[in-house]
Write a structure and sequence with these properties.
heterodimer, A: alpha/beta, TIM Barrel, B: two-stranded antiparallel ribbon, elongated, MbnB/TglH/ChrH (chain A), DUF692 domain-containing protein (chain A)
């Protein structure tokens, strides 16, 4: 059993670099090779066991890298109250691993006494917005820190929605004091699935609220002659999403950027390639910014 | 009921049912002639994501019944027993019992116990850590005092008994490239599953070892446990058992 080491660790803040979602398949590679990656992100729910190897690996990896906790189980958009026990477990992981960022989704997974474990779509009404804001505030108060909220990928819309997703999304963050985790792939997936205009969507986003960016692959299905894009995190980032990301960071500025790959998990080198692709785009924009400053 | 609550419940009903989603639910969706298919994406995700968690938890059961049958069983299980926990780490706690209720599986009488072993393995993997018992903690104890000790087993330790040779079935089916035949005549086995440190161990043990640890877990002292074990298995060799397991992490610090 390892005791917590507050000292001798990589610093907590997540740098403005490319990072990767940490998968158990890659623990050994990360520990042995110490790849030149800015940071790692984990789903805290995968580390909520009482003990065992996952927590030990994470201790080890945390020595060398800043981490971000990306929660999938809080169910911020649920009509049901937040789960105290889950919040406590989240808090103890925050205390133990000192993550640079903590985030959750604009979504829900708890409709009855059971959990969907998948991110379900919200109806964008004032009622939902109030629930969302209240729950974000409760989490932030409990954790004593700001969290970031991620925009969802969605496949359907509710008739009862009173406002566009982007308005609801930004308003939830503004009212609760949360930041935004902009998933560029999700923007692309949702906009194409619903025929929304990507520029309209992005124009709502206030630069100063952006704390993190996500990138991932999605799959494409043909349904009755139409295209549905499914966010499955199971492939490389597609070229349209890379272009959108490049345009996004040129316009909105840089933020820590994560490559998420959660299904059909590749060998570690392939994940590293995706991370370095993101890093190259970050470096290019950073260089332009420096040049602009120098040349005035 | 608020609109949000009504919608979320109705959405959950639609995710879980094997039937076509309720008309009232589809009524709430913006219709572009694809509403049903759009909802179907969420339904698939719900079934597949939780089914994948079961496939990760029960790889040997999956191998024994085949991918297609496993997918059907997992789907039925997800609908019958949707996740009750915020995490998926121990999802599938009722899967072994569930398999027992499926008439089509009666030809694989060992399957339920194999599923129990797989669940037990993962439970041990995520169980609390503990420091192993150290020799210096028992130093200078008289024989009498030693017999009165209550040992604490590691928090990950679990006992599992089966009428079938499930340890052999489980070991042989750890990878796809083995095709050894196992005769059910090999009979019953008793197992201790424990994770003293980083690795989960599955140990085949004698009747006596099994009984002795069972007694200790029920708070018997070493003396009481030995006496009770002697009744069931006079062959049980306490000295040999302790020489192997007293300080190997089977027991934790007092």
């Amino acid at each position: 059993m390892e005791t917590m080491q507050a000292s001798g660790r990589a610093p907590a803040p997540v740098p403005i670099r490319a990072g990767a979602g940490l998968k158990p398949q890659h623990y050994q590679s990360v520990i042995e090779d110490q790849p030149d990656i800015g940071w790692f992100e984990i789903h805290p729910e995968n580390y909520m066991g009482k003990g065992g190897p996952p927590l030990r690996y994470l201790e080890k990896i945390r020595q060398d890298y800043p981490i971000s906790l990306h929660s999938v189980g809080t169910s911020l958009g649920s009509h049901l109250p937040l789960d105290r026990e889950h919040l406590q477990q989240l808090k103890s992981l925050v205390d133990r691993f000192e993550p640079g960022l903590v985030s959750e989704h604009l979504s829900w997974s708890h409709g009855y006494e059971w959990y969907t474990h998948d991110l379900m779509p919200l109806v964008y009404t004032e009622e939902s917005l109030q629930v969302m804001v209240e729950h974000i505030e409760q989490v932030q108060e409990y954790l004593q820190r700001q969290i970031l909220i991620e925009n969802p990928s969605s496949y359907l819309q509710f008739k009862a929605s009173e406002m566009p997703e982007q308005v609801f999304y930004v308003e939830a963050a503004k009212r609760s004091g949360a930041g935004l985790l902009v998933d560029v792939n999700n923007v692309f997936v949702s906009c194409t699935n619903h025929g929304w205009n990507i520029d309209d969507y992005l124009s709502e986003i206030p630069i100063e609220l952006i704390g993190e960016i996500h990138l991932s692959g999605h799959s494409v299905q043909q349904v009755e002659g139409r295209t549905l894009r499914i966010d499955d995190h199971g492939s490389p980032v597609c070229s349209e999403v890379w272009s959108l990301y490049q345009a996004f960071i040129s316009q909105f500025g840089l933020a820590p950027t994560l490559i998420e790959w959660d299904s059909n998990i590749p060998e570690f080198p392939q994940l590293l390639e995706e991370v370095s692709s993101a890093q190259s785009l970050i470096d290019a924009v950073a260089e332009t910014e420096v040049r602009n400053v120098v040349t005035g | 009921m608020s609109l949000l609550a009504e919608l979320q419940r109705s959405f959950c009903d639609g995710l879980r049912t094997a039937d076509a989603p309720d008309g009232a639910l589809l009524e709430m969706l913006q219709d572009d002639d694809l509403a049903r298919q759009r909802f179907q994406v969420y339904r698939n995700n719900f079934i597949v994501l939780n089914g994948d968690a079961l496939a990760d938890m029960f790889p040997v059961v999956k191998r024994l019944v085949g991918d297609e049958a496993f997918r059907m069983l997992a789907t039925a299980y997800v609908r019958q027993h949707p996740p009750r926990d915020r995490t998926l780490l121990l999802y599938g706690d009722l899967f072994a019992d569930f398999l027992q209720t499926i008439p089509e599986l009666s030809g694989l009488p060992y399957l339920t116990d194999v599923a129990r072993l797989e669940f037990t393995w993962t439970a041990a993997y995520h169980a609390a850590d503990a420091f192993p018992l150290q020799p210096d903690q028992l130093q200078n104890l008289s024989e009498e005092a030693f017999a009165k000790l209550q040992l604490r087993v590691h928090p990950s330790l679990q006992l599992l008994a089966s009428d079938f040779p499930i340890h052999r079935i489980w070991s042989v089916n750890q990878s796809d490239d083995q095709d050894e035949l196992i005769s059910l005549d090999e009979g019953a086995c008793r197992l201790i599953v424990v994770r003293p440190d980083n690795e989960v161990q599955v140990r085949v043990v004698s009747e006596g070892e099994f009984e002795f640890v069972r007694q200790l877990m029920a708070s018997a002292t070493i003396g009481e446990a030995f006496e009770a074990t002697n009744q069931t298995d006079p062959q049980f060799d306490l000295g040999q058992f302790f020489s192997r397991h007293l300080f190997d992490g089977t027991f934790c610090a007092m």
